[in-house]
Design a protein that fits this description.
Blueprint (H helix, E strand, L loop, with lengths): L8 H8 L7 E6 L7 E7 L3 E6 L8 H13 L17 E3 L2 E7 L11 H18 L12 H7 L9 H18 L7 E4 L8 E4 L2 E5 L6 E4 H12 L9 H14 L4 H28 L12 H13 L10
Antiparallel strand pairs: 1-2, 2-3, 3-5, 4-5, 6-9, 7-8
Helix pairs in contact: 3-7, 5-8, 6-8, 8-9
GO molecular function: ATP binding; homoserine kinase activity
Keywords: Amino-acid biosynthesis, ATP-binding, Kinase, Nucleotide-binding, Threonine biosynthesis, Transferase
InterPro entries: Aminoglycoside_PTrfase (IPR002575), Homoserine_kinase_II (IPR005280), Kinase-like_dom_sf (IPR011009), Pseudomonas-type_ThrB (IPR050249)
Length: 319
C-alpha cells in the first residue's frame, strides 16, 4: 500500500473545507506508487485524488502545478489541480505538501491496442505542440549530463561487459549530440509509461503523475514512450505500434531533420536512463519505504536490442 502518511477522515474533512468540493463521504488509501501517499476522496459532489508529497524537492512543486494548470487550460487530458476558494492549489496536510485533483476515468492499458497507441501518439504530439510555449523552466534531471555524472556509481555492481557497454554508450551519446544544435524544446511529461495513462476503452481518460515533468528535448519524451509502448518482451520494436504512435505524433508535430538524425541514439539514451536509474535504486539509493524496485533488466534488454537492431525507419510524414 503506497500510503506512507496515514490520514483520518477528520483531517481530510477539515482540509476539504478550504475548497468548494462538497462534504467528505469516503476516504480510501491507494495501492501502488513508490514515492507519494495517494488517497481516493469521495465527496457528495466529486470524485477526487489527494496526494501527499513524501520525497523529492518540494520547492519544485509550483512548477508541476503551473504545468498542469497550463495543459488543463489547453484542454489536454491531464488532472488539473483543484484550487481553493482563494485560487491556491498547493497546501500542507499532516506537515506534507498536498494537492487535490479530479479523479480521471479509466485503467492502465497493459497491452495497448493500435487505437490506444494512435490516441496516445496524437495526444503527446498535441501536448508537445502546446508545451513549446509553456513559460516555466525546470531542467531535465535525467538527461545526458545526469548519465555522465551518475553512471560510475553502479559500475561495481554490474559485469565487466556491461561496464564497458555503459561507458561506451555515454561516449557515443556525447559524440553524436555534440554534432547538432539544440533540438526543439518544451515541457515534457518525463515518464509517460503505460501505467501513467488511463484509458476508458479506447478513450484516453488522462495522462497522470507528472512528477518527472521538466523542460528539455521533446524527442526525449517521445523516445521514452516508444521504448515502453512499442517494445515486446524481448525489447524488440513492434512495427505496428511504432508506426501508429509516430504517425499520429507527427501529424501534430513533425520531427525536424536533426531530430530524425539523432532518433536512434535518443532511443538508446532513454533506455540507458531507465537502466541506470533502476540500478541506482536497487544498489545505491533504495527507496525509503518497503517497496519492490522496478527491475533494471527490462531496460538493459531494450538498450541491447536497440544497439543490435537500431531503430526502425521513421514513418514518412504526409504533407
Amino acid at each position: 500500500m503506497a500510503v506512507f502518511t496515514p490520514l483520518s477522515d477528520a483531517q481530510v474533512a477539515a482540509f476539504l473545507e478550504k475548497f468548494d468540493v462538497g462534504q467528505l463521504q469516503t476516504l480510501e488509501g491507494v495501492a501502488g506508487g513508490t514515492e507519494n501517499s495517494t488517497f481516493f476522496v469521495t465527496t457528495d459532489q466529486h470524485l477526487l485524488v489527494l496526494t501527499l508529497f513524501e520525497q523529492g524537492e518540494h520547492e519544485e512543486l509550483p512548477f508541476f502545478v503551473d504545468l498542469l494548470d497550463y495543459l488543463d487550460e489547453h484542454r489536454l487530458p491531464v488532472p488539473g489541480p483543484v484550487h481553493d476558494r482563494d485560487g491556491i492549489a498547493l497546501h500542507s496536510l499532516a506537515d506534507k505538501p498536498a494537492l487535490l485533483f479530479p479523479r480521471l476515468p479509466g485503467r492502465h492499458p497493459e497491452a495497448p491496442n493500435l487505437i490506444q497507441c494512435q490516441v496516445l501518439g496524437d495526444t503527446l504530439g498535441h501536448m508537445h505542440a502546446i508545451s513549446q510555449h509553456f513559460p516555466g523552466r525546470r531542467p531535465n534531471p535525467r538527461d545526458l549530463h545526469w548519465l555522465q555524472a551518475m553512471h560510475h556509481k553502479v559500475l561495481a555492481y554490474i559485469s565487466p561487459a556491461d561496464q564497458t557497454l555503459m561507458k561506451d554508450e555515454i561516449d557515443e551519446f556525447e559524440s553524436v549530440f555534440s554534432q547538432y544544435g539544440e533540438l526543439p524544446q518544451g515541457a515534457l511529461h518525463g515518464d509517460l509509461f503505460r501505467d501513467n495513462t488511463l484509458f476508458d476503452g479506447n478513450q484516453l481518460g488522462g495522462m497522470i503523475d507528472f512528477y518527472n515533468g521538466c523542460t528539455g528535448d521533446l524527442l526525449f519524451d517521445l523516445a521514452i514512450v516508444i521504448n515502453d509502448w512499442a517494445s515486446d518482451e524481448n525489447g524488440h520494436l513492434d512495427r505496428e505500434r511504432y508506426d501508429t504512435i509516430l504517425n499520429a505524433y507527427q501529424a501534430r508535430r513533425p520531427l525536424n531533420s536533426d531530430e530524425q538524425a539523432v532518433w536512434p541514439v535518443m532511443l538508446r539514451m532513454t533506455a540507458l536512463r531507465y537502466w541506470l536509474s533502476r540500478l541506482l535504486v536497487v544498489y545505491v539509493d533504495p527507496p525509503a519505504h518497503d517497496l519492490t524496485p522496478h527491475d533494471p533488466q527490462r531496460f538493459e534488454t531494450i538498450l541491447k536490442a536497440r544497439i543490435a537492431q537500431g531503430a526502425l525507419p521513421l514513418p514518412e510524414v504526409t504533407p
